[in-house]
Amino acid sequence: MKQLNVGILGLGTVGGGTYAVLTRNAAEITRRTGCAINVVQVADRNIEQAKLMTGGKVDITNDAFAVVNNPNVDVVAELIGGYTLSKELVLKAIENGKHVVTANKALLALHGNEIFTAAQAKGVIVAYEAAVAGGIPIIKALREGLGANRIEWVAGIINGTTNFILTEMREKGLAFADVLGEAQRLGYAEADPTFDVEGIDAAHKLTIMSAIAFGMPMKFEQAYTEGITQLQQIDIKYAEELGYRVKLLGITKRTEAGVELRVHPTLIPEKRLVANVNGAMNAVVVKGDAVGPTLYYGAGAGAEPTASAVVADLMDVARLSDASVAQRVPYLGFQAGQVNDLPVLPISEINSAYYLRLRANDKPGVLADVTKILADRNISIDALLQKEPDDNETEADIVILTHITLEKNMNAGIAEIEALPAIVGNVIKIRMEELAK
After folding, report:
1. How far is CA 280 from the centre of its chain?
2. Are 30 and 60 in the same domain?
3. Which of 99, 149, 327, 344 gets the highest tally of CB atoms within 10 A of its CB?
């Protein structure tokens, strides 16, 4: 029987899950692939713990380069994270003619172009299903299942930590800081949660999906990123009163002017399925010209959900390692030489609808002044919510939902509104998406 020898770099949460799934489901995997997938070497800093996890059945080393240089290893599973050492290891494995499976979204978002070029030159496979949305097979769906479509847009809840925080804020009426502490206590958020709550992790994943959807290079440095740290509970409450939920979305769209690549809090109609994805779960909506909107839902992180995707990639390598390069699915789903360097639009050039909240003195004429400023810029109002001031207060909240307009026009209108004498403080702006067509 054919055999595929695997070297695992990192036996942490994902690496440990990968080893467990490969071991537990070995017979089923062999039935599906006609190949025995064997872990022959593991690199981990904690040798003793790695020995316990593998039962002493695998060669353990604390030198990751020993694995990528091992002539008995056919495929390297890079599961250590980061994008410095991991980049060196992946490029060395490719140089040595080894296939690579990785769950590392940051590595691919920042260095994927270089890695795929190197792999193409050596004729090896780089598989990365686990890099986006954990156990949800969104890479395979975009690259293969929807291959007959011209992808129009992709929008996803692709960070479980922020989705958990926003769910708790909505359901329990708590402030961001309070929920973040709870998320850290429960293990959903890291001690330093910056990558999650500032949208960086989601932007890494969105960059990869955008490249596959539109056949373009990775352009993480051009992604617009806005997190949830400034989001206030009152806006989540008002959004719900108006029939919307607030989610941190990664959104990429193909337009005539270029590609939108953006991560930010977003109002979604509560009737949409994706608006009802709660807790730490992930979901991605993909709109193709032939198939229409399609939804992919599941666990976006965790040991075995992510391991499910890693092992599926190893199974693909087992099936395709002997195939010619022409018979394999290209790294981004487009043939070599057919990846187009599409421009990414700055956030000021995107078109969106908007939620605006302003605090105003409760006196006649204020609302008329605000609506005139918007009308002068051809910004039409879809809905308006005017709150009565509390007892003994002279200020009240006004909430406006607009139709779609150019962001720079919206920003100019907001600047004019903020300059009105009756307006107190800054106008709160949150983008809105219908996700219907």
Report:
1. 13
2. yes
3. 99
Structure tokens, 326: 């022409």
Choose among 249, 241, 176, 236: nearest CA to 209.
249
Burial of 56 (0-12, 13-18, 19+ CB in 10 A): exposed
Judge if 184 and 289 occupy the same domain.
yes
Residue whose token pair is 């309070």: 178
Give the model confidence (pLDDT) of 292-335 as tens digits: 999 999 999 889 999 999 999 999 999 998 888 888 999 999 99
Determine which helix (DSSP H) or strand (DSSP E) holds 432, and give its type and residue range. Answer: strand 423-432
Backbone angles phi, psi at 61, to 5 degrees: -140, 155
Task: Count Cβ atoms below 10 Å from residue 204 Cβ, excluding itself.
Answer: 28
Tell me which residue of 276, 271, 281 sits closest to 162, measured CA to CA: 281
> Exposed, middle or buried, 182 (CB in 10 Å: 0-12/13-18/19+)?
middle
pLDDT value, residue 429: 98
Alpha-carbon distances of 410 from 79, 278, 358, 421, 427, rounded to whole Å: 43, 30, 14, 19, 11
The answer to whether the beta carbons of residues 205 and 133 sit under 8 Å apart is yes
Give this prediction's pTM. Answer: 0.96
Helix, strand or coil, per DSSP, at residue 120: helix
| Among 87, 205, 219, 253, the one annotated catalytic | 205
Q: Is the pLDDT of residue 46 over 80?
A: yes
> Is residue 237 among the annotated active site residues?
no
CA distance 149 to 292: 9
Q: What sign does the CA torsion over 89, 93, 95, 99 have?
A: negative
Q: How many domains does the chain divide into?
A: 3
| CATH number of the domain encompassing residue 160 | 3.30.360.10
| Residue 152 shares a structural domain with residue 45 | no
Residue 420's domain comprises 347-432
The per-residue pLDDT for range 163-177, each reduced to its tens digit, is 999 999 999 999 999
Centroid of chain to Cα 340? 22
Q: Under a CB-based contact definition with an 8 Å cutoff, are residues 139 and 128 in contact?
A: yes
The average pLDDT across 61-89 equals 97
111-135 burial: b if 16+ Cβ within 10 Å, else e: bbbebbebbbeeebbbbbbbbbbbb
Mark whether 114 and 215 lie in a shared domain.
Answer: no
- Angle at alpha carbon of residue 366, lines to 365 and 369, rounded to 5°: 85
Provide the 3-class DSSP secondary structure of residue 28.
Answer: helix
